[in-house]
Structures are given as structure tokens and as C-alpha cells.
Design a protein that fits this description.
Length: 179
């Protein structure tokens, strides 16, 4: 079973998130591509403007020490190549974004597996940095009924911005009653 953190992250919060990634020596790759090779992103913001609600939102986060042999899978139906979250020591980052004045939820997701033991102590390293990544969101964002909301996302919603309409929607007019 995987671990995940669901959040609303305003695009202006990506810089602080990138600083955390850099401090832990973590790197990001576009998780879905139609071409090879899959290249490292220069910034977590790179590519987000291409498709705000689709595959461009998916980013694979690795330790820079654990990304030399990335496992890929081909999706015949979509005719694309995906970095496989089930077989790689990675965290899948579905970036939160604003499209049509609606803030879409994001997610950090990982699948911890014993198969990530590379015999050199890197299994512990994966669990250490991946847990730290999820903890970073939990510590820096407000927990609103199981959805973590960044400070800038909260300000944006307070000013009338609409969060994504889902079964776990946070109603803008109910912000005063948040726990």
C-alpha cells in the first residue's frame, strides 16, 4: 500500500518546495513523455504551463543518488512512456495548479517496497528522504480535513479563489469554520 499527502499548493509556493528538494539533493523528471530519453527538469515549475490538468502535472522525484537506472513502462492506449511509481525509489508529485480560476488539488504519492534495497544502504535513504518530503508538506501547510493547504493557497481562497470541485471540496464560504 502506498503513502500519500493531498494538498492545495498555490503555484507561488513551488519556489519554497524547490528549495526543500535542493536541500535534500532531490531531482525531478517529467513522469510522462512521448519521447526518450526522459530528462531531468531544471525546476519543479518546468513544464507546468504545458497542460495544467493533464500529464504535465506529474513529476517523478528521486534522490540524485538513486536515479541512474529508472524503470519505465509504455502505455499502449495513450502511446506514452511513464516513469513507474511501483518499481522506482521515487515520489510521484502531481502538481497543484490553477486553471480557469480553479485551484486543482495536488498529491505526493509513494510506494515503499522492500525491493528498493540496493544492498548499499540506499533503502534507508529512500525511506528517509521520501518520508521527509511528505512531512515537509504536513509541517508547512494547514491540515483542513485531511487536505493540506499552503499559506498562499489559503490566501488565494480567502480572496475568492475556488478550489477544485471534488468529493473532498473545501468550500470558500466555509473558511471561517475551518478547524
Amino acid at each position: 500500500m502506498g503513502k500519500q499527502v493531498i494538498f492545495y499548493m498555490h503555484p507561488d509556493d513551488l519556489d519554497a518546495f524547490q528549495e526543500f528538494l535542493n536541500s535534500k539533493q532531490l531531482v525531478a523528471f517529467q513522469a510522462v513523455s512521448t519521447t526518450l530519453p526522459i530528462e531531468e527538469l531544471s525546476s519543479i515549475k518546468q513544464g507546468l504551463e504545458l497542460d495544467a490538468t493533464g500529464d504535465a502535472r506529474l513529476v517523478a522525484i528521486f534522490s540524485k543518488y538513486e536515479c541512474d537506472a529508472i524503470s519505465l513502462r509504455y502505455n499502449k492506449k495513450r502511446r506514452d512512456i511513464r516513469i513507474d511509481v511501483n518499481t522506482n525509489p521515487m515520489v510521484e508529485f502531481a502538481r497543484s495548479c490553477i486553471k480557469d480560476h480553479v485551484l486543482h488539488m495536488g498529491r505526493l504519492y509513494l510506494v515503499p517496497k522492500p525491493s528498493f534495497d540496493f544492498g548499499d544502504g540506499s533503502e534507508h535513504n529512500f525511506h528517509s528522504w521520501s518520508d521527509a518530503l511528505l512531512r515537509w508538506v504536513r509541517r508547512h501547510y494547514q491540515n483542513r480535513e485531511g487536505i493540506y493547504v499552503s499559506p498562499r493557497a489559503e490566501e488565494w481562497i480567502d480572496r475568492g479563489g475556488a478550489p477544485h470541485n471534488s468529493s473532498r471540496r473545501i468550500e470558500p464560504d466555509g473558511l471561517d469554520n475551518w478547524p
